[in-house]
Design the sequence.
């Protein structure tokens, strides 16, 4: 993105005031849809004034540059204006997912040294329960009350009366802007810090991948408690002056299809797990909806199984584009996008300014088709600046000039990147590396299979053996026949070595709140071990 030379690089400023200067003031920035499908439109000018009010309020209460702030609110307009207001002041902001448990909340407040928390009456109880046990007592703001007690300050009236003018101070690109916690797929979630300079990569990647026309309506379904929800559900669209949708309600096929159709969504960004859920409806369900306006669909968070791409083409009549990134990378690094033909099962190609490599354990580059560590040449502007309270882990993530992502992948001769698995999840069986993703993708091709998670567990003979946890539909009458059919299918589609040694039929596959399969939980369940940190496990 070509930012004028002397422009203020503050992310909050660039998403609001700058948009007004560019002439987008009256354009809707946010189309907010309530549970009941009521619609509220907030223009870029409104966004500027509301975030200015928030910035003035924080300044008044002496929450200053570099202080840490957490926001515990559902997806309501205030969440966005408070976040942007915090950024304008230079506060280091973190949005939490509202279903966070009290122990995790306490841990995150203590670990980060958070100075203030903003919430609403509905979620106050979570904070009240832990307040007296915190190492330092934070200031607690309540947005839907005007009363204050010794424990919290009600800001409803005050914020509506405070000045809507705020002169955003110039900020250094190295100033911390926001932090996130990882999804916790492989262990305890890590606190990941980002800087105001991240704006360049977030803005550029948004345009390179989503390629919106100025009047397009864009919808990112990710919760702002995760990196996708902030990089692409707040910053990416707004710094580019694009109108976006935010829906208060959680996933529900009918509700979502109504939004896609009724709000004329042009670009949708979601997660494979959502499409796996959508696929559980009969194809005829979708013929009721007119998706003429929908131009493109994108996905992130997990490998995109080819069966989902086939379904998207057949049932929705659309291509689904895969994108790959991490909390640590801050923005999309590899993607399928217009101009690059989709190869089902591949993540696509690196963005124009990103240089990934597949390296072996010694840091040497490996030839195409050979599996190895997916690494990224440092630095890039949205690269994380630290793991909170864990500088040793941060150092360990780098090898020479490269950041080690922890994922295993390979390239083909045309430069497409193919995801194999996370370093810890790739199965080493009988001397072969088996990708859990490949086995899961093969099993998902069978209509009987609703969901699946594949793991490797220790085995005396094979070193590791492949175990598939499978959720099947009601059409299966004989489990033994299903067992044989599933194993045979993987043998034919992938290889006999990859075929699961055992299939565990189950009701549910454990996922993180951001929709990723928690393979470590499946592994521990199978081995009857302690399940570890479950703070990000989705409760069904
Ligand atoms: P933790 O680091 O705590 O174990 P996490 O890695 O799941 O959690 P995130 O940063 O939210 O936390 O997720 C990034 C990871 O998600 C990537 O490293 C990769 O394993 C997976 N991922 C994201 N997008 C894709 C994709 N398109 N294809 C395959 N895997 C993906
Ligand atoms: Mg990770």
Sequence:
């Amino acid at each position: 993105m070509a930012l004028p030379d002397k422009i203020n690089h503050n992310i909050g400023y660039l998403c609001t005031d700058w948009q007004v200067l560019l002439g987008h003031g009256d354009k809707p920035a946010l189309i907010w849809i309530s549970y009941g499908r009521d619609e509220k439109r907030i223009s870029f000018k409104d966004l500027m004034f509301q975030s200015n009010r928030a910035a003035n309020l924080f300044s008044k209460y002496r929450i200053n540059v570099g202080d840490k702030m957490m926001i515990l609110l559902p997806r309501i307009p205030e969440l966005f204006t408070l976040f942007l207001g915090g950024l304008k002041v230079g506060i280091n902001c973190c949005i939490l997912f509202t279903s966070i448990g009290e122990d995790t909340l306490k841990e995150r407040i203590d670990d980060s040294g958070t100075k203030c928390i903003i919430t609403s009456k509905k979620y106050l109880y979570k904070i009240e329960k832990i307040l007296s046990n915190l190492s330092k007592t934070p200031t607690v703001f309540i947005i839907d009350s005007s009363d204050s007690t010794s424990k919290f300050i009600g800001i409803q009236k005050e914020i509506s009366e405070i000045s809507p003018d705020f002169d955003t101070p110039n900020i250094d690109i190295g100033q911390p802007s926001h932090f996130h916690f990882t999804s916790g797929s492989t262990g305890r979630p890590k606190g990941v810090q980002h800087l105001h300079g991240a704006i360049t990569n977030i803005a550029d990647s948004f345009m390179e991948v989503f390629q919106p026309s100025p009047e397009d309506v864009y919808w990112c379904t990710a919760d702002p408690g995760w990196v996708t929800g902030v990089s692409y559900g707040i910053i990416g669209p707004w710094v580019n002056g694009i109108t976006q949708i935010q829906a208060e309600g959680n996933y529900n096929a009918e509700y979502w299809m109504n939004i896609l159709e009724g709000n004329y969504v042009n670009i949708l960004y979601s997660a494979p797990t959502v499409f796996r859920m959508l696929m559980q409806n009969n194809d005829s369900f979708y013929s009721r909806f007119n998706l003429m306006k929908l131009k493109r669909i994108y996905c992130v968070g997990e490998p995109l199984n080819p069966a989902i791409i086939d379904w998207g083409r057949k049932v929705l009549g659309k291509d689904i584009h895969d994108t790959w990134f991490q909390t640590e990378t801050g923005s999309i690094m590899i993607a399928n996008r217009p101009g690059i033909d989709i190869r089902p099962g591949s993540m696509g190609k690196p963005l124009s300014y990103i240089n990934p490599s597949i390296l072996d354990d010694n840091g040497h580059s490996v030839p195409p088709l050979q599996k190895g560590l997916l690494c990224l040449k440092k630095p890039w502007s949205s690269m994380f600046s630290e793991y909170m309270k864990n500088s040793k882990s941060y150092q360990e993530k780098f090898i020479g000039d490269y950041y080690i992502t922890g994922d295993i992948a390979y390239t083909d001769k045309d430069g497409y990147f193919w995801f194999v698995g996370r370093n810890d999840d790739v199965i080493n069986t009988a001397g072969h590396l088996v990708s859990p993703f490949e086995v899961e993708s093969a099993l998902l091709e069978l209509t009987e299979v609703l969901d699946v998670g594949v793991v490797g567990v220790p085995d005396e003979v094979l070193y590791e053996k492949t175990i598939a946890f499978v959720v099947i539909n009601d059409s299966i009458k004989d489990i033994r026949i299903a067992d044989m059919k599933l194993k045979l299918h993987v043998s034919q589609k992938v290889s006999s070595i990859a075929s699961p040694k055992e299939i565990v039929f189950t009701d549910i596959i454990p996922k993180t709140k951001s929709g990723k399969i928690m393979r470590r939980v499946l592994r521990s369940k199978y081995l009857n071990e302690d399940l570890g940190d479950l703070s990000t496990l989705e409760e069904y």
